[in-house]
Amino acid sequence: MTSFAKQLLDWFDQHxxxxxxxxxxxxxYRVWVSExxxxxxQVATVIPYFKKFLGRFPAVDELAAATEDxxxxxxxxxxxxxxxxxxxxxxxxxxxxxxxxxxATVDELITLPGIGRSTAGAIAAICHDTHAAILxxxxxxxxxxxxxxxxxxxxxxxxKLLWKKAEALTPHDRIADYTQAIMDLGATVCTRSxxxxxxxxxxNSCGARINGTIGRYPGKxxxxxxxxxxxxxxxxxxxxxxxxxxxxxKGLWGGLWSFPECESVNAIDSLLQSLNLExxxxxxxxxxxxxxxxxxxxxxxxxxxxxxxxxxAEPGEEIWFNVSAPQxxxxxxxxxxxxxxxxxxxxx
Length: 348
Prior knowledge:
By secondary structure, the chain is α+β, with helices and mostly antiparallel strands. It is built from 14 helices and eight strands.
């Protein structure tokens, strides 16, 4: 075992986290769900979602048997919804192609939707003690600082260097503990801002600390000007029910429910006509910005009280959503924000 691994494991034995929800009753299913939820999301945010999700889907067969709406409803607010859709698809594949048993090797795991090289390594190492390296955001930060590896970790060459280092350092003993330990170190000590260097087992060997260049590592992603887009959302309301439409499974907010949209307030009349709805009263609500990974979206909600209608929502594509007694479906974040701001009084 390298001194790097021994120092880390000694630290982990004293300071590592050992009672996170997915660390108790450890199974490939629970570890897999946690690893997917933890992608680009902090532990504190994930814990309540994980508990609720596992409370509803305690095993892979129950997740596979669920509807997409049930899965997305429990994911609402966690973001990056492709993770939830892939989780659902993968559960079905595990039931159909693997008899409900999780593959044990990295090569098999990475063939499943939503499971990349690092996630596959984490599942294999933590659940099967397989010699497999990981390279999530926390690990990238620890290695980049300790070994002063320049460049943005998402860049091809820098990522190759980091993977090479991660694989060389991963021990053949206590692999599950080492895997958890290096993630813990990045999450609790070698944090993105204000790292607690005196508490780090690598205080005397970390190149960035010794050189006084901690802020330089890991390298920043090259800046791009974020494009700005805009949309108008129609909140068609009838007796405390609002019309929602299901978005296509692929693409923005795939599989979630959202308000009908148009390009401008001037197009609201045409949108109402296409929906066969008659306007009684209109209110333009405050505009707000929702930021995605690659662009900003300015949203202008327009609330329209509509006349009583016999119009039936298209099954599977539309729903009259009861604001007072919400159905258990997956909603986009802007929808939950707008719904929270709707007046409480009954529409007339």
